[in-house]
Amino acid sequence: MKALRVALLGCGTVGTEVARLLTEEGAELAARIGAPLELAGIAVRRPARHPEVPQDLLTTDAEGLLRSDIDLIVEVIGGIEPARTLLRDALSRGISVVTANKNLLAECGPELYEAADESGADIYFEAAVAGAIPLLRPIRESLSGDRINRVTGIVNGTTNFILSAMDETGAGYTETLEEAGRLGYAEADPSSDVDGFDAAAKAAILASLAFHTRVGAHDVHREGISEVSSADIAAARELGRTVKLLAICERVRGESGEESVSARVYPAMIPRSHQLAGVGGAFNAVYVEADAAGSLMFFGQGAGGVPTASAVLGDLVTAARNRIAGGFGPRESAHAALRVQPMGETPTRYHISLDVADVAGVLEQVAAVFAKHEVSIAVVRQEGRTADANLVIVTHSAPDRALRATVDAIAGLDVVHAVTSVMRVEGEST
Ligand code: HSE
Predict the structure, then answer these.
(1) pLDDT over 90 at 385, yes or no
(2) Cβ–Cβ < 8 Å for 152, 287
(3) Ligand 1 pocket, 10 CB below 6 A?
(4) At residue 90, does pLDDT exceed 90?
(5) Pick from 87, 247, 361, 390: CA 20 to 30 A from residue 99's CA?
C-alpha cells in the first residue's frame, strides 16, 4: 500500500525518539497500520543542532514541508506560535495531527478542533498530559458511556520529585529545588513546573474531556509549590499526611442541583493512605472517579523522551489507521458547556497551624473567627510550649473565599503570634 507521509515538527527530546522509533520499528508499525509510515521531513530551527537524525530530512521550512503531500503531522515544537498557525492550516487542509503541545491545546484547543471538524482530519494528543500514561483515550473513549465526577492527578513530575524529596529528607524548598536541578529533574528556569503552569494546562485538558465542557488554562485556579515549607511538610507528617501538587477537576453540584466544573491546581495535604500518596519521585498518577466504573488509577512516567514517544506513536498509529479506513476518531465534545466555578465559591478544607499566646480565652477568640465566617472546625490540636502554644486546626469543607477570610482575620488577632502553615486538605471525607 502507498506509504503515509509523516512530517515531524520539532526535534527535541521527544521528537528525536519519535524519529528513531519510526525508523527502527518501521516494519512492525507498517504491519499494524496496514501501510508504511514514511518520515518525509523534520522541521527544526537550527539543523546543526540535530546530528542524531537523518540530515537529509532536516529543513527549516516547516510550511514548505507541510505543503509536500503530507498525510500526518507530529508536532513537538511546544509553545503557541508557530505551532498554532501551522497546525490550524494543516488541519483545515485535512492533514491529521498528533501533538504533545499542552499549552497550545489549553489556550487554543477549540480553534484547532473546529479546523479538524471542518475537514474531517484527526487531532490526537495523548502525550500532552502525563507523558506515557494512557489517560486521555480512556477518558475520551473507554469512559464515554460513564459519568466522570472527579479527576485528581499528580501530573507534574518535577514538582512531585521536589515534594517527595522534601518529605523524605525534611529539607526546605529552595535547597531541594537546587538538588532537583543538579540531578536533571528541574529545568534551569523551573517556573512552568514549580508555579503550576504546566499542571494547569494539563488540568484544562483533563477537565474539558471529562466534563464535555471547554475549559481553558485561564479557567484553572493555579498555585505552585514555591511557598511550601519544611514546616508544612512536617505538619502534614504529624497528621499522617503528605503534601502533593494536585490537579483537581471536579463536577460540582450547587444547592439547587445545577452543575459546574471546578478545575484547580495547588499543593495539598492528602492522607498517607491515599492512592496518590505513594506516588514518589518524578512519576505521575491520575485518580479518576466515575459513577459506574468507580475509582480508577493511572500511573506511570509523565515525561522523558522515550516514554512520551510511546504516547505519540500510539496516536500516530491510530490516526494512520483512521486515514486508511477513511474515517476519523472522536471529535471535540463540549455539549455540556458547564459553568466554570470560581475558586472563591469552591468548597475545600484547610489545615491551619498557628503560634498563639498560651493564655485563657485564646481558643475562644480563634474559634469565634471561624464561627463568624461560617467555617466549621473538624480537628483542633494544641501543644503547649514555654511562653506560647502551637495550635493546629483542620476545617470541614467550606467555600474557599470564607476560608481565606478566616485565615486573614485570625492573622490579625493580638493573641496570634504567627500563622506558620496554611494548606488545603484533600482526599478524605468532609
Ligand atoms: N515538565 C513536565 C514535568 C513534563 O515535570 O512533569 C512535561 O509536561
Answers:
(1) no
(2) yes
(3) no
(4) yes
(5) 247
